[in-house]
Design a protein that fits this description.
Layout lengths: L3 H8 L15 E5 L2 E4 L4 E4 L2 H4 L8 H11 L13 H13 L4 E7 L2 H18 L7 E5 L8 H4 L20 E3 L12 H14 L3 E6 L3 E2 L5 E2 L2 H14 L2 E5 L23 E4 L11 E6 H7 L21 H15 L2 H17 L8 E7 L2 E6 L5 H10 L2 E2 L6 E4 L7 H16 L4
Parallel strand pairs: 3-15, 5-6, 5-7, 7-10, 10-11
Antiparallel strand pairs: 1-2, 2-3, 4-12, 8-9, 11-12, 13-14, 14-16
Amino acid sequence: MPSLVERDQAVVWHPYAPPVATPLFAVRETEGVSIRLDDGRWLIDGMSSWWSAIHGYRHPHIDAALRDQLGRMPHVMFGGITHEPAVRLCERLAACAPDGLERVFLSDSGSVAVEVAIKMALQTQIARGRPERSRLLTIRGGYHGDTFGAMAVCDPVTGMHGLFEGVLARHLFAPRPECRFDEPCEDEHIAGIAGLLDDHRDEIAAVILEPIVQGAGGMWFYSPDYLRRVRALCDEAEVLLIADEIATGFGRTGRLFACEHAGVTPDLLCVGKALTGGTMTLAATLATGDVAEALGRTTSEGAPGVFMHGPTFMGNPLACAAANASLDLLDTGEWRSQVAAIGERLEAGLEPCRALSAVDDVRVLGAIGVVELHEPVDMAVVQPAFVEQGVWIRPFGRLVYTMPPFVTPPEAVDRITAAMQVVIGAIER
């Protein structure tokens, strides 16, 4: 009888993997902050299932909301129809997001939320009589998703999509902000993006970036002052600002949204991942009233007066019920002390990694801990090594990082950091 891994390797194709994925580990169940493998071993999840399971697994409040919704209406189309879970969710997102974001467009993945934001920005410029403004400006080191519009604004090197460069839309890339989170943004730090905005202002529809924390493109944390200055530059050039908070939204950085560190409101805000607490796939793009007004305008330049997008599973009631339940948990405010406590233990637990020969940098913000190496890791060696240490960590490139669930107890955080020390310590430069 073939094992589950053997059956998988015969037919399944995994993300960022060849047709036959290896190493591969079969999972039997999840509970709390742990994953149980098919062989009975329990692993502490240091990744929150790609940063989404912020309340851990099988949280009773979210599970109850899903069971209740399943008994009434698992799905219905969203074209011409509305329902309570979606309306309530959109009301709550508009209420908790940075001031001025009034309209919510639901979709089913983070990449699609970014596609929606890009299309909204382009269509807004058409409605304003500026169809020539059709390019995007972004910063190096960014990651925005795997669909074609999103790939085109990922970093051409660290964004993993250089293979498609010849067929992607050609946008503009400013240098990565070099001012760290706790540093001021000096004129030289902003000069690159300011110069591109000035030189290409008649071509640019929007600036898109991940506020404060760049995710899969490099796990870099930059100064809130940089974001404030970008907001001012966008206002002066009359281009939109898109904030991709798919990785940072819902408390991961110590604020509910990373934009709050800078006190700015983007014109468009993308959220996903943790939106449902990691139980269902759901994402959203929030827009200001000005953007909504432009998209509702019919013009002689071709603006149709409607937004031209509509996912089949948009507003899925089950996913919306899970998201509302996740927001219930966030509304208690406990996440603030949880994230702060995790951050303190990550700081202490990862500090010894600075002395390891393979390590280039260590950085922590909120419930995010990153160890950057001099060279890329060998996943065939490193992934099983973490499993042997009893934790699930999924490095990429030169980055070994953790984003544990907010409910991770102190001793489990310590086990994660201890495992990172051991595994990284075994890597020779």
